[in-house]
Amino acid sequence: MPKLSERFHKIIRFSFRNYSSKTETKPKKDVDPCRTFKIYRFGGILSKEQPKIQSYELDVSTCGKMVLDALIKIKDKDPTLTFRRSCREGICGSCAINLQGMNCLSCITEIPPAKTITILPLPHMYVIRDLVVDMTHFFNGYDSIRPYLVRKNDGAIGKTQLAQSIKDNEKMVGLYECVLCSCCSTSCPSYWWNGRRFLGPATLLHAYRWVIDSRDDDTEQRLYELRDSFKAFKCHTIMNCSLACPKGLHPAKAIMNLKRLISGLDKKPVPEIDPGKFKSGGDSGSGKNKKCCP
Ligand code: SF4
Ligand code: SF4
Ligand code: FES
């Protein structure tokens, strides 16, 4: 089953890249650097103005090659334009936007060679102002899966390191790199329509990351909490999320693996080495249900 999905993932990524390169993401040398940026503007709920699309002319040869560089340049001309950004390295996940119909991180996405470039806020999110969307519901969902390591009956927490084999650690590769930008969740039709009860791909990817972590021993409770017809099972494996992820992760595959664990088709592998291996005979049992980050 995973092999099939991996092949499918490669096929859809390949087709998408081919499609995009034929249309607009592949830079062309002879493209006029003077571009029109059509950007969504909204002054907030207290504003008397209706939301609108505002056009800005920009010579992109005067700024860096990423979309965020263009936005910063435009903001120099119009300081009222509002958008989120922080690291400009694709790590903080705060600069997610919808560019030419695709969600992306503006700091690691090159300015497309199209004459007209349309920038909108992330789809199906409440807009606070311009390109800034309300992430409260998204992070409440993330918080609900208890995104931290849980150890029961383990006095070693916070006192000694928890052991993990390289092979067990590799199970989390492709999961812990997620920067919680929400590009995947906001491109998921099921999250659009069932967002109040379906957790969405980003949160479910993290749920799987903590379930599969060999050092976490609250697996049964984590899986039990996801056992309803909405939280995970409203994913229909359409794979929009995996296409949208700017970090090249595969949330749809993580959800598929998670669903197999929830339904009992698969079992969490036994850790290769005992996570409490380095415990130094301290006050065992005193740290019941404590939580900590790895
Ligand atoms: S695979 Fe699931 S989570 Fe991903 S876009 Fe489709 S329905 Fe949404
Ligand atoms: S899985 Fe990818 S798209 Fe989704 S939140 Fe994480 S980094 Fe962003
Ligand atoms: S500014 Fe941090 S990911 Fe883009």
Automatic annotation (TrEMBL):
It holds the Pfam family Fer2_3. It is found in: Mitochondrion inner membrane. One of its GO terms (molecular function) is 2 iron, 2 sulfur cluster binding. GO terms for cellular component: mitochondrial inner membrane. Residues 272-294 are annotated as: Disordered. Its EC number is 1.3.5.1. PROSITE patterns: 2FE2S_FER_1, 2FE2S_FER_2, 4FE4S_FER_1. It catalyses: a quinone + succinate = fumarate + a quinol. Keywords: 2Fe-2S, 3Fe-4S, 4Fe-4S, Electron transport, Iron, Iron-sulfur, Metal-binding, Oxidoreductase, Transport, Tricarboxylic acid cycle. Its cofactor is [3Fe-4S] cluster; [2Fe-2S] cluster; [4Fe-4S] cluster. Residues 49-125 form the 2Fe-2S ferredoxin-type domain. One of its GO terms (biological process) is tricarboxylic acid cycle. Pathway: Carbohydrate metabolism; tricarboxylic acid cycle; fumarate from succinate (eukaryal route): step 1/1. It is a peripheral membrane protein. NCBIfam families: dhsB, PRK05950.1. Belongs to the succinate dehydrogenase/fumarate reductase iron-sulfur protein family. This is Succinate dehydrogenase [ubiquinone] iron-sulfur subunit, mitochondrial. It comes from Bombyx mori (Silk moth).
